Amino acid sequence: MRPLVHPSIEDVTVEGILHALADPVRVAIYAGLAASEKGTSCSAFLQLDDREIPKSTLSQHFRALREAGLIRSERQGVEMRNTTRCGEINQRFPGLLPAVMGAYQQQLMDRIKAAKRKGGKARGV
Amino acid sequence: MRPLVHPSIEDVTVEGILHALADPVRVAIYAGLAASEKGTSCSAFLQLDDREIPKSTLSQHFRALREAGLIRSERQGVEMRNTTRCGEINQRFPGLLPAVMGAYQQQLMDRIKAAKRKGGKARGV
DNA sequence: TTCAATAGTTCGCAACATATGAACTAACGA
DNA sequence: TCGTTAGTTCATATGTTGCGAACTATTGAA
């Protein structure tokens, strides 16, 4: 089993970051990791936003985030401790991550508002 | 020949924008359009950064940008007038586009600096 | 040790996406 | 009507993604 790959911060690319964060599932994972102080295991995201994510799919998403340089994963006993590398990235690309996450936040709020206007339950997928 | 599709600004998604801008060719096109005041034809980008882009590939890239909501394309006689929709997008997702384009700019400058440090010619691809 | 349990990874394949040459269409000007 | 220029669409080869099944690593008993 090959060891986990973490690019050094100089090898992190903007296109890589954008590609990784162009997927709602990965964004949700990233946001979850960013919110937790001391790192989170992968399996914490098996259930995400009412959606079931298969284990193998989750693993691929973590790999994508890791190889884009967005997160760091290290074994801690039987499970994984995942943390964001937002400090390093903010230093290399100041303002990029806040802008992206802020835009997603904005989009979420717009959707909630739009769902309310339609009167029914929030069915936005 | 089906008419060109332009999503209304409420239908523009963050994931769509990021996916479109996760490609260096499309970013170069977008930057070129953003720099020009009165719109630019597609064929202006057939030669890009020393690279030859095939016509059909270019057409797909323009379609991607268009359907992500990043640009507007309208026929002007025999050619196309492409313009960015950055005004609308900045209103809907304030700060997103400047942050992304700024990060690419940063990356470009870092690469130039790194190439200089290595002494040789700028071979960074 | 050996066995079972838990947490992730890797493999294989089907479905989807992308790049590009070739053929096509649309607008214009002889 | 023909030729030219500018883009689009089609066909296809190649690449990427999602997911079940099989595998690996670590820990904790028995």
Overview of the molecule:
Chain A has one domain: Arc Repressor Mutant, subunit A. Chain A has 5 helices and 4 strands. Chain A has helices at 14-20, 24-35, 55-67, 86-92, 96-117; strands at residues 47-48, 51-52, 71-76, 79-84. Chain A has a two-stranded antiparallel ribbon with strand order 1-2. A two-stranded antiparallel ribbon of chain A has the order 3-4. Chain A is globular. The N and C termini of chain A lie far apart (36 Å). Chain A binds chain B through residues 10, 13-19, 21-24, 27, 92-96, 98-100, 102-104, 106-107, 110, 114, and chain B through 10, 13-19, 21-24, 27, 92-96, 98-100, 102-104, 106-107, 110, 114. Chain A binds a DNA duplex (30 and 30 nucleotides) through residues 1-2, 41-43, 54-60, 62-63, 75, 77-80.
Question: Which labels suit this protein?
Answer:
two-stranded antiparallel sheet; Arc Repressor Mutant, subunit A; DNA-binding; 49% helix; 5 helices; 4 strands; alpha+beta; two-stranded antiparallel ribbon; homodimer; 125 residues; 13% strand
